[in-house]
Design brief:
Length: 199
């Protein structure tokens, strides 16, 4: 009896604290965006998890460059698997680098989620949520619905207490020497609320 009770408690603990979690499922109706969980896009388990100290003071915007833009669910799921393969298998990172991705289909794709430290901006990973817009946004701006979904995702992070109320929004190039998130996208986000130009 004691052994079966202990097994049940351990199972419940692992299930409650396991990764990944559907952390946005309850927010879909409120924020009106589609959320695609790790399970739904076919993610492999992470090789390890480091928990973020929440709420974070930064939101860092990226673009993938490669893979290119995706506009259907299947193409975006494929892009997520491609990124995870590159990050986890080639770079030997614990998992896909980003906390979330937003596709040209207007959906949010779960990466490491709200609670895990990402691998997207060296020196800032432990104090930020990394959001990548799937596509090459050097010379053109992402579709308006993709941009709006990013704004809704940030609003959700604020609402749930994962992003600090006085957060700063920055582009990847502001914290690391890189072209990311692409010149066109960088110019776009520089007009958004909470963008910080003096980082």
């Amino acid at each position: 009896m004691l052994l079966s009770t202990l097994t049940f408690v351990l199972t419940l603990t692992v299930t409650t604290h396991s990764y990944p979690r559907n952390q946005l499922r309850e927010q879909n109706a409120t924020n009106n965006f589609e959320f695609v969980s790790r399970q739904e896009w076919g993610a492999r388990p992470p090789n390890g998890i480091t928990e973020l100290n929440l709420p974070v003071p930064y939101v860092i915007i990226h673009h993938t460059y490669e893979p290119g833009a995706c506009y259907t669910k299947e193409d975006c799921k494929s892009a997520m698997r491609s990124m995870q393969n590159y990050h986890q298998l080639t770079h030997k990172w614990q998992d896909i680098g980003y906390n979330f991705a937003v596709g040209g289909d207007g959906a949010v794709y779960e990466g490491r989620g709200w609670k895990a430290v990402g691998a997207h901006a060296y020196g800032y990973n432990t104090v930020s949520i990394g959001i990548v817009l799937i596509g090459d946004w050097v010379s053109k701006v992402p579709p308006s619905h993709q941009l709006e979904t990013v704004k809704k995702l940030i609003a959700t992070g604020l609402e749930l207490g994962y992003i600090s109320s006085d957060y700063s929004l920055v582009g990847h190039r502001q914290v690391v020497s890189t072209e990311c998130p692409g010149q066109a996208l960088f110019q776009e986000i520089s007009s958004w609320d909470r963008f910080r130009s003096d980082l």
